[in-house]
């Protein structure tokens, strides 16, 4: 009995030793599977000052790049660049070298990546920012990096100061001309001509559009595309100014209230011979509101806005109402008193 127990115990012990040996033999491969991960080891920027910026080339050195490519979540999945964990959708590799473990990107801002860049610049402050560049798949995963931080130029200082100077110079010139010339004043026989609403609106859109072009150029280094919204807004303003001018000529024989001296910038824009009226007031309000959303879109999206067609129609109706009621602002050979 004792002998049988000993043999059984020896067999059990041998089985345990065998299992342990098999486990020890498989342990290195298990550890390798757990620790072999793709990681960014180095970042190179191909530019004059080695700083990341729009239109610069960026090369990422990836350890175990093949493993990263094998982990693609879908058949059509593409690698994209991540900046501070922000997926830069549309910024795809222009070349991949598996033998050297490198992936090359061009930091290009085009129609496919414009939303991603707008999101990045929205939270960026100052002229430059230290960022972590890595790579991964959108809505899937990114890999870690031990390459440290890369300096990203948010705004080129030279372009920023040039653009700021140009915009300020334009505003100053317009203010001086507005006070000392008739560039935004009504047709009038008075030496101190009142300010014209239609001409002021045209100057307003001109300044906003020029500012937008210069602002986008300063941040991105490229000029934006002219959108249909810009053409429509300028077209409506030019048509309104032309219509107002025609009405002024048609009332040449009238005792026009515009022949009275200016009562101040805002009163001139909002008033006729009866005082402040609704058709002028609504045009000023809509112009300021659309101007606010125009600039907001430019600053946030770094692109020229594309307004809804109905919104542009509303602007056209507003200007048309002003022109239509302007015809009735003066009555022939009637003495006009200031109220």
The secondary structure category is alpha+beta
Number of helices: 9
SSE arrangement, N to C: HEEHEEEEHEEEEEHHHHEEHH
Strand content: 15-25%
- In whole angstroms, the N-to-C terminal distance is 128 Å
Principal-axes geometry comes out as elongated
- Number of individual domains: 2
Percentage of residues in helical conformation: 40-55%
Query: What is the radius of gyration?
Result: 34 Å
| Uncertain segments | 1-5, 25-35, 334-339
Largest beta-sheet characterization: 5 strands, mixed
Number of strands: 13
Strand order of the largest sheet: 5-6-2-1-10
Mean of residue pLDDT values: 82
Q: Topology of this structure?
A:
Elements: H1 2-35, E1 39-46, E2 57-63, H2 65-70, E3 79-83, E4 86-87, E5 95-97, E6 102-106, H3 114-122, E7 128-131, E8 133-137, E9 141-142, E10 144-145, E11 150-153, H4 157-180, H5 197-220, H6 228-250, H7 265-270, E12 271-272, E13 275-276, H8 278-301, H9 309-326
Parallel strand pairs: 1-10
Antiparallel strand pairs: 1-2, 2-6, 3-4, 3-8, 5-6, 7-11, 8-9, 12-13
Any descriptors?
single chain; 339 residues; 2 domains; 5-stranded mixed β-sheet; elongated; disordered N terminus
What features would you describe in this structure?
The chain has 9 helices and 13 strands. The model is unreliable at 1-5, 25-35 and 334-339 (pLDDT under 50). The longest helix is centred in the N-terminal third of the chain and has 34 residues, at 2-35. The N and C termini lie far apart (128 Å). The radius of gyration is 34 Å and the shape is elongated. The chain is of the alpha+beta class. The strands form 4 sheets. The protein has a 5-stranded mixed sheet with strand order 5-6-2-1-10, with no helix packed on it. The protein folds into 2 domains: 39-153, Immunoglobulin-like; 157-326, no CATH class. It has helices spanning 2-35, 65-70, 114-122, 157-180, 197-220, 228-250, 265-270, 278-301, 309-326; strands at residues 39-46, 57-63, 79-83, 86-87, 95-97, 102-106, 128-131, 133-137, 141-142, 144-145, 150-153, 271-272, 275-276. Helices cover 50% and strands 15% of the residues.
């Amino acid at each position: 009995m004792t002998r049988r127990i000993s043999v059984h115990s020896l067999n059990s012990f041998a089985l345990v030793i065998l299992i342990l040996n098999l486990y020890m033999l498989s342990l290195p491969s298990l550890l390798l599977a757990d620790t072999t991960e793709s990681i960014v080891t180095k970042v190179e920027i191909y530019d004059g000052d080695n700083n990341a910026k729009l239109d610069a080339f960026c090369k990422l050195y990836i350890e175990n790049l093949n493993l990263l490519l094998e982990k693609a979540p879908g058949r059509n999945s593409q690698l994209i660049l991540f900046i501070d964990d922000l997926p830069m959708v549309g910024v795809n590799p222009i070349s991949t070298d598996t033998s050297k473990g490198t992936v090359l990107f061009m930091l290009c801002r085009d129609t496919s990546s414009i939303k991603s860049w707008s999101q990045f610049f929205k939270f960026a402050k100052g002229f430059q920012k230290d960022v972590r560049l890595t790579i991964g798949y959108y809505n899937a995963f990114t890999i870690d990096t031990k390459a440290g931080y890369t300096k990203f130029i948010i705004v080129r200082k030279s372009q920023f100061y040039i653009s700021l100077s140009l915009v300020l110079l334009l505003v100053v010139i317009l203010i001086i001309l507005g006070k000392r010339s008739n560039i935004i004043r009504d047709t009038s026989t008075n030496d101190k001509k009142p300010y014209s609403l239609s001409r002021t609106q045209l100057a307003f859109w001109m300044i906003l559009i020029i500012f937008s072009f210069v602002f986008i150029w300063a941040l991105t280094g490229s000029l934006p595309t002219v959108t249909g919204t810009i053409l429509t807004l300028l077209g409506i303003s030019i048509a309104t100014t032309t219509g107002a001018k025609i009405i002024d000529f048609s009332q040449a024989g009238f005792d026009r209230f515009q022949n009275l001296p200016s009562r101040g910038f805002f009163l001139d824009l909002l008033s006729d011979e009866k005082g402040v009226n609704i058709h002028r007031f609504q045009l000023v309000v809509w112009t300021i509101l659309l101007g606010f959303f125009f600039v907001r879109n430019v600053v946030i999206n770094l692109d020229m806005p594309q307004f809804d067609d109905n919104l542009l129609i509303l602007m056209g109706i507003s200007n048309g109402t002003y022109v239509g009621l302007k015809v009735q602002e003066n009555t022939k050979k009637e003495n006009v008193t200031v109220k």
